[in-house]
Amino acid sequence: MRRSWARLLLVAGVLAVATHLATVWALPRLIMWRLARATPADMERARGVFLPAMTDHLQRRVVMPSPDLMYALCAFDLGGRPWRVQADPHVPHYWSVALYADNSDNFWVANDSDAGGRPLNVLLVGPGQDPALAQGSAGATLVRSPSRRGLLLMRLLVSDPQHELPSIEAARRSLRCEPA
Questions:
Q1: Domain residue extents for the chain
Q2: Which of 51, 60, 66, 89 is deepest in the core (most CB within 10 A)?
Q3: Are 55 and 46 in contact (CB under 8 A)?
Q4: Burial of 167: CB neighbours in 10 Å, binned 0-12, 13-18, 19+
């Protein structure tokens, strides 16, 4: 009887550890997969970029969204060829572009301080991919993605919505995310 309890506890422990590890590995990938495939009807799409409306207290597309940020999203798939990411956000405040792998790990970020007033020009290359597959990549910052699929999130600070929204919207619309 004692042996069967020990065996039962061992099996339960192994199953608990295996379930935990599978969840920790799979859950971020599942969330990113669903987020990359979700195309909300109320979100405008331009040149491969999703442009959600300004965040308010009712929206939860992004976890804990900030009401003083505007967002732009792009889902990428590097299975066929590298992608080019370009933006020219001339805004007086903070902006950033962050790249996330399919497991939700952030693997690259650029912001207004890094850019120093220059346009953003990135060649995004998948695992094991040759950057030479992309046409006209001269002058682009080469970024290697750890996964074939992922997401790009652009954030722009809006400190005075009444006066800044036109320039913020123009900066957001300058983002291009497409195969090179």
A1: 44-179
A2: 89
A3: no
A4: middle
Q: Which residues pair with 124 in a beta bridge?
A: 83, 143
Helix (H, G, I), strand (E, B) or coil at 66: coil
Topology of domain 44-179 in CATH is: Immunoglobulin-like (2.60.40)
Integer Cα distance of 131 and 78 in angstroms: 11
Q: What kind and span of H or E run contains 171?
A: helix 161-173
CA angle in degrees (0–180, nearest 5) for 71-151-49: 50
Under a CB-based contact definition with an 8 Å cutoff, are residues 35 and 150 in contact?
Answer: no
d(CA 62, CA 29): 16
Query: Which residue blocks in 38-134 are alpha helix, DSSP H?
Result: 112-115
The residue type of 70 is M
Conformational region of residue 128, where left means phi above 0, alpha means psi within -120 to 50, and beta covers everything else: left
State how far the Cα of 7 lies from the Cα of 19, in Å rounded to an integer: 18
